[in-house]
Design goal:
mainly alpha, two-stranded antiparallel sheet
Length: 156
Amino acid sequence: MNGAGEGGIDRLAFAVRLRRMTAELNRIAHEFAGEHGLHPTDVQALIKIFDAPEPITPGRLREELNLTSGAVTACLDRLERAGHIRRVRDAHDRRVVHLHYLDAARELAGAFFRPLGRSTDNTLRRFSPEELRTVAAFLDAMNEELDALRTAPGSA
C-alpha cells in the first residue's frame, strides 16, 4: 500500500514533505532562540503572541502551548526580561493580563527572519493565485485538524 489518498496523492510522500518543511522551520526557530538566549518554547510563545488577532492572555497561551502555569510564567518572565513582550493589566478587570509583542522585538525578529521572508516571496512567485488559494485552503484545513487533535480529550 502506497498510502495514496483521494485523487491519487501519495499521503506518505506528502507527509514526508510536510515533516521536512516543519523540521527546517524548527531549525530556523531554534537558531533564533539560541542567538537571543531564548528557549525553543519561548519562540513558540512569541509566535502565538505575535499571530494572535488580539492580545492573548497567559491562560490562553498556556492552553495553546499545552504548558503548566508555572512553565508559562517562567517563559513570560524570560520574554519580558529579554524585551520581547510586555504584560498589561486589563483596564476594566485588573485580574486579566494581556500579552503584547513589543515593537523592538518585532524589528529584531524581522531582521532575523528576513531571509525566510525572501524565500517565501520567491516561492509564492512560482505559483498562480489559484494554486496559492488551494495551498492556503489546505494549510487552513490542516491547522484546523491539528487544533482539533490538540484539544481533543486524550490527544497526544
